[in-house]
Amino acid sequence: MAENRPIRSRGLALAVLCAASLMVVLDSSIVAVALPAIQADLGFSPAGLAWVVTAYLVAFGGLLLISGRLGDLLGRRRVFLAGLTLFTFASLAAGLSEDAGVLVVSRFAQGVGGALASAVVLGMIVTMYPEPRPRARAIGVYSFTQAAGASIGLIAGGALTQALSWHWTFYVNLPIGVVALVLAVRVVAPDRGTGLRAGLDVLGAVLVTAAVMLGVYAISSAAWGALVSAVVLLALFVVRQAKARTPLLPLRLFRVRAVTGANLVMVLMVAGMMGFQFVTALFLQQVLGLDALHTGVAFLPVPLVIAVASLGFADKLAARFGPRAVLLSGLGLVIVGLLLLTRVSGAYFTGVLPALLLMGLGAGLAIPALMGLAMADVAPADTGVASGLITTTQQVGAAIGTAVLASVAASRTAGLGSLDHREALASGFRLAYGASAGFLAAAMVLGALVLARRKRREEVVEEREVCTSQA
């Protein structure tokens, strides 16, 4: 069993899973700063260029849920290896692209591979680490890859594009993917799924995949007709899950308070955090005048502080005070950082940097705590689909936050046409930071109301000692 594996082997398996997960997360942002170079090289139209990002997000977000369920049925290691292989080959195809259409298709294939690989990772980690304290530490490592990946992607994208070419934003995945594949075969223990005979709800898979794909596309492209269609398909999916003999997403999961609450909080939290990254990248370039490389470097404090918090002491705080308290405290720090940005002027070190440090600390505390809460009460047979669900809500939150905050900033800037253009842009970004703080405040209130307080490790030990003495 996973809990009997040698600690060194288990730690290496965790490192492989998190490295692959980080690579997938990086790919959602690493290409962002390379888009102007891609457009100039391949002749994309302004509208067509958006598909370099959208094709990846649509495939990735749309297939996470079914990928997680396939992990439960076929074995999570098998699905992980298949996804990692596809992602690596698709990265090579994207890097070799000399045609706009080929690049978009390659990005879609990357999204498919990324969904297969990343949907099952959290479920595999939970299975490998059944003990509460080591599990919290392992989830902290995984959460670092999720929280800091986008910022690291901006840094890497700027450096690779400026030093080499945009092709290397895809080529960089090749050595990582190959090494991760070789090591995963050796150190990640095989697991037995329940088998396809247990049933794969094909109709449900089609409905939810189409719904999430349409939803991500609609939010990213402001296609409101597609959004209505996505809502209808999602409603049909829920009806189907209530009646299916072997549902893709068992509705019993939502009777687990921690699962429902954590996923709702995740949507709001990621909406604020990912939207903030999008807005800040524009603020640094359009208001402060930084180039692509320096914009990436300006984000560097965020992953560094997230690493210190999530890898250094988040698990200890969760064990001492409980994950709910740590989550709410982390969200509070992020809100303070965003409120500081609503008053930012034009100075990075005195205006932007203090807010980034606070937000990195808050994210490094909040995300591991929320991940742990989302998986704490899930039955072993459902860890794959629960892992896919929490990753899906992350993607939905990112799409919502980016679309809403971009719209808020653009509307505010357009309404201040009489001002200096740079000041009008800054005003729009400041308002967007306020909207981002609103998302986080809603997440904090919802977490306080819905997520139940979980017993601290000391309380569990005390209860066991009392039971032992009474026996």
UniProtKB/TrEMBL annotation:
Main location, first listed in the record: membrane
Membrane spanning residue stretches: 12-35, 47-67, 79-96, 108-129, 141-164, 170-189, 196-216, 222-239, 260-284, 296-314, 326-349, 355-376, 388-411, 431-452
Keyword Signal among UniProt keywords: no
InterPro entries referenced in this protein's UniProt entry, alphabetically: MFS (IPR011701), MFS_dom (IPR020846), MFS_trans_sf (IPR036259)
GO molecular-function terms, A-Z: transmembrane transporter activity
Keywords from the named record: Cell membrane, Membrane, Transmembrane, Transmembrane helix, Transport
Top-rank taxon, per record: Bacteria
Domain Major facilitator superfamily (MFS) profile: 13-459
GO CC annotations, alphabetized: plasma membrane
Membrane topology: Multi-pass membrane protein
Intracellular or extracellular location(s): Cell membrane
One Pfam family recorded for the sequence: MFS_1
Protein name, per record: MFS transporter
Species for this entry: Amycolatopsis iheyensis
